[in-house]
């Protein structure tokens, strides 16, 4: 029996996904808008208070590394903490980002250290793989004259600087980014299929980073975090994995500041190979004992085909607009770098 597009068994499910996509699109658009404006607003307020000098040529607006990082931290908290709750408020959604995922019961998902620790090691191995993928992509894009954006570093060779950078670039992203992408977005999309939810949120997570070389890295990290969140039924293991990845990066950068370039590259390679091998062994251990963390669960197949789900996502004007805006800012980053802004 044929059904018109606005009726039939699947119509309600498509409409529900379209509404969920609108929520995600609204939150993502708000985040993108804040990414472009929040730090500027904070700096303007500090300039009015006489704390920041907007004419300073040091890139720190006369506040030094500590002062600028504090301003950046305030802006970053606004960027990542506001979109989820505000979009939920505007769309009248009741979402508890830290609660257990629907469909997981205590008996099936009781976490054991012997399962979680190897899973975290496996997740870190994926993060290491993402670094190697990014390095090859950098070389590939370099053949076409696409340069890597030069990211500023605020790390100094002192322990207080290291700890403050860990707070801002490891602790806060681990909590706030996972809260938005896995606490809100993954939770909303999970009823339409676990793999679908993981891949979609990982794509959004990659686009959020805004430059063509970081997107593949963030996408792979997002896959690992999404997999860990759904396998455990909780957001905090994904937060822990995200933190450990960023923590490793900060510590390696700090160690590299005390070494020659050649020594730093050797240290980086040794650490990455060690983490990658240990992570692979950990995953093999989980599969060898058929651990619940990797065991396939007898979940019912999604009610809609993949094409229907993708079509419902992009039929939301807000979701489609969010993707277009994110791609625009990514392309703008490439053009700015090519014109010398990232050299």
Give an overview in words:
The chain has 343 residues and is mainly α. The protein has helices at residues 11-48, 64-81, 83-90, 113-142, 159-189, 194-208, 214-232, 236-257, 261-288, 306-314, 317-338. It has a domain at 108-297 and 314-338. It contains 11 helices and no strands. It is globular and about 60 Å long. The model has no long low-confidence stretch (mean pLDDT 89).
SSE blueprint:
Layout: H1 11-48, H2 64-81, H3 83-90, H4 113-142, H5 159-189, H6 194-208, H7 214-232, H8 236-257, H9 261-288, H10 306-314, H11 317-338
Helix pairs in contact: 1-2, 1-3, 1-5, 1-10, 1-11, 2-5, 4-7, 4-8, 4-9, 5-6, 5-8, 6-7, 7-8, 8-9
Query: What is the CA-atom radius of gyration, in angstroms?
Result: 21 Å
Largest sheet: none
Q: In percent terms, what proportion of residues is strand? A: under 5%
Give me the secondary-structure category: mainly alpha
Poorly predicted segments:
none
Query: Mean pLDDT, nearest integer?
Result: 89
Give, in order, the helices and strands.
HHHHHHHHHHH
Distance between the termini: 61 Å
- Give the overall shape, derived from the CA principal axes: globular
How many E-type strands?
0
Q: What's the total helix number?
A: 11
Helix fraction by DSSP (H/I, runs of at least 4): 55-70%
What multimeric state do the chains show? single chain
């Amino acid at each position: 029996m044929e059904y018109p597009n606005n009726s039939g068994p699947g119509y309600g499910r498509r409409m529900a996904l379209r509404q969920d996509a609108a929520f995600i699109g609204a939150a993502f658009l708000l985040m993108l808008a804040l990414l472009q404006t929040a730090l500027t607003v904070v700096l303007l307020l500090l300039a009015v208070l006489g704390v920041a000098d907007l004419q300073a040529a040091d890139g720190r607006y006369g506040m030094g590394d500590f002062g600028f990082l504090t301003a950046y931290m305030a802006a970053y908290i606004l960027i990542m903490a506001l979109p989820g709750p505000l979009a939920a408020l505007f769309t009248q959604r009741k979402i508890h980002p830290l609660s257990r995922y629907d469909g997981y019961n205590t008996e099936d998902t009781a976490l054991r250290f012997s399962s979680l620790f190897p899973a975290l090691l496996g997740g870190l191995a994926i993060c290491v793989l993402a670094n190697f993928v990014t390095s090859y992509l950098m070389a590939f894009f370099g053949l076409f004259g696409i340069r890597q954006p030069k990211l500023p570093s605020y790390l100094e060779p002192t322990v207080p600087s290291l700890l403050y950078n860990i707070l801002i670039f490891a602790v806060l992203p681990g909590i706030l980014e996972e809260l938005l992408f896995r606490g809100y977005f993954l939770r909303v999309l999970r009823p339409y299929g676990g793999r679908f939810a993981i891949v979609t949120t990982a794509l959004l997570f990659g686009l959020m980073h805004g430059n063509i070389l970081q997107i593949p890295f963030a996408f792979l990290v997002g896959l690992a975090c999404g997999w860990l969140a759904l396998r455990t039924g909780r957001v905090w293991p994904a937060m822990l994995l995200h933190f450990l990845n960023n923590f490793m990066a900060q510590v390696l950068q700090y160690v590299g500041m005390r070494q020659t370039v050649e020594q730093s590259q050797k240290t980086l390679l040794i650490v990455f190979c060690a983490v990658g091998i240990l992570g692979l062994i950990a995953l093999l251990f989980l599969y060898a004992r058929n651990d619940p963390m990797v065991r396939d669960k007898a979940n019912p197949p999604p009610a809609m085909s993949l094409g229907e789900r993708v079509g419902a996502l992009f039929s939301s004007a807000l979701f489609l607009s969010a993707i277009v805006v994110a791609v625009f800012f990514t392309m703008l980053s490439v053009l700015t770098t090519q014109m010398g802004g990232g050299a």
